[in-house]
Amino acid sequence: SSDLLDSFGINLAMSAEDTRKAVDDIGVAFLFAPQYHGGVRHAMPVRQTMKTRTIFNILGPLINPARPNIELMGVY
Question: What is the pTM assigned to this prediction?
Answer without folding.
Answer: 0.57
